[in-house]
Design goal:
The chain has helices at residues 6-10, 13-31, 73-85, 129-137; strands spanning 2-3, 34-41, 44-53, 93-98, 114-119, 140-143. By secondary structure, it is of the alpha/beta class. The two termini are 16 Å apart.
Length: 152
């Protein structure tokens, strides 16, 4: 799941998240994993990449992802849960790339076997919302500034 809200665009976090997303997808390709991508912003959750076996990636498919509006986190999580639920035949990982700037604090998707939250918070006075969400979800929290996808 990629947070594509205005707050991710305003401080360059979306560009960093896209780079990290490409690295995660490349790692999934090497492992021959299946992947999907949901982007959420404004009042919309968009399935940018339907579930499929990971393939070789390049910047062309990710560059058009824009940002703007609010952060419909609960709607995105609900949609991710529905998507994961349909694939109970394999181990289901949920990766959430976000700056955590949402007033919503949805429950962890029950269909996710493993959850990881990658935080992109850059505020002068950090609120640690992504970290708090990870704790509430009993998920792994990773700071984007120090994250290496090959170690995931």
């Amino acid at each position: 799941m990629l947070d594509a809200s205005a707050s991710m665009r305003n401080d360059g976090s979306l560009a960093r998240a896209k780079g990290l997303l490409l690295a995660l997808m490349d790692e999934a390709y090497r492992r021959r994993d299946h992947v999907a991508l949901l982007c959420f912003a404004g009042s919309v959750v968009e399935l940018r990449l339907p579930p499929r076996r990971a393939s070789a990636w390049n910047d062309d498919w990710i560059a058009p992802i824009g940002a703007g509006g609010g952060t419909p986190l609960a709607l995105g999580v609900r949609r991710a849960d529905e998507l994961l639920e349909r694939h109970a035949d394999r181990r289901r990982w949920l990766w959430l790339l976000t700056d955590g700037r949402s007033a919503e604090s949805p429950a962890r998707p029950g269909s996710a076997d493993v959850a990881c939250v990658v935080g992109f918070e850059t505020a002068r006075v950090p609120l640690h919302r992504a970290q708090s969400l990870a704790a509430a979800w009993d998920a792994r929290y990773l700071d984007a500034a120090a994250f290496d996808p090959r170690q995931a």
